[in-house]
Design brief:
This protein is an alpha+beta fold. It has two domains: about 100 residues, no CATH class; about 180 residues, no CATH class. It has five helices and 18 strands. Strands 5, 6, 9, 10, 14, 17 and 18 form a seven-stranded mixed sheet that branches. It has a five-stranded antiparallel sheet with strand order 7-16-11-12-13, with no helix packed on it. The protein has a four-stranded mixed sheet with strand order 4-3-8-15, with no helix packed on it. The N and C termini lie far apart (about 110 Å).
Amino acid sequence: MSASSLAVDVPWAERSEGKAASAHHIGKRGRTARAHMEEAVRRGRGANCDNSNVLSILTGANPYPDTLFTVQEISMKFSALRQFGAALFVALLSSTAAHAQHLHAGDVEIGSASGVIVVDPEALAQHASNGYALFEGDFRDLSGGVFGTDDPGFISEEGALTPSDIIYFRGIGSLMTWSGANWVVSTAAVSLSIEDALGELTVFSGSGISSPQGIIGQVNGAGEIHEHLDFDLLGADRALASAYLITLQIGSDLNGFSQPFYVVMNAGLDEEVFESAVGALTAPVPEPASWALLLAGVGMLSLVARRRAG
């Protein structure tokens, strides 16, 4: 006897095409209906019963006798529910993975090659016109208070570093401030600090850097690291809306220090204004040959103008 020939009463579903069972009915009633269906099929296989015998098993307490489905249709509906559940599970996993990726976006990625630490080994970061990788942070993200943040962090892929190696940062240069038109040396009324893994402070100011080297952390047994240090804005002018620029390098006990890179911190500027400050760093600087060509062009224009005036 073909399973598709069996008719089953289902009080919790409608026969109309395109209408799915509500979530309220997918629990106890759904399981009960399926149990009845399986019992009917089992008995039908064990004895020479016809459709009417099977229906008598399934419809004894059915309050909706005119709502009938075949066993095949019921099976298809359960299959559709299983597929929906699987798709929902995959979507949730994807959302979780995307969220995890978002949490690490903007971190300073490091690796090692030829005995030195390499910053941005996959070349995913934006770069300044001088070739330095450029990373951003925001003192107003509130993760460390109004004047503090722990972004960007420092991260590597698994196996990119040697287990147990100690990773350091080193500051170079001085603290720079966005004036609204260009980057200038900061005044004495503001400074920026980084607290390392041992609680020691490196402080950047317009006059230089105190205790320029600090510890980021130790590489774990899988050859990876992911650490966030505290950046804080200090001084009487720290509440003024601006942007700040520091220059760092990263090294380790087993590897030399990396090429320098920039960290640019927003401190209350509108996004458009902050991006213009970042853009001033990424804008290409004309080569000397370009400057010579430009000056020659200006000279030619001046000569033509003088001849016309004469």
